[in-house]
Write the structure tokens for this entry.
Amino acid sequence: MNKTAKIIIAVLLISNLLLVGFLFMGKNKKHQRKIPSEIIIEKLRFDDSQQSSYQELIEVHRKSVQKTHEKIVKTKNRFYKSLKDESPSINDSLRNEIIKGIKEIETLHFNHFQYIKELCSDSQKEKFNNMVDELSTIFQPKRRPKNKRHGK
């Protein structure tokens, strides 16, 4: 192999290694998104005692939401089973039960944030009030990349 070919191979090898490195570094940055509880603790500057109380609130909240969500899923399954019928029709009673469950979850979320506010000292309440406008984005589910949806 001549000297020019060796240089070209070396340059291509280095550029490939750099490209792979940038790809992996880029993915790690995307996956290092803080979880909502960390954001709340950081923004409100909770002390150790408040963090402990907050973790307890989270556990109670998660159990309540999970229980309600399971009820919604069971009701949705009954609701959609009517699609198997020859002439399916909407069951208003089941649909209202689903709506009631969704309202219940939103009420649980609202109350959860009220409890968080109660954990705050007077100086933290101003930070909490400033954070209120961000709550819907802080707790937004992680979005999948567009090209991975629906088998694309």
The chain has a mean pLDDT of 84.
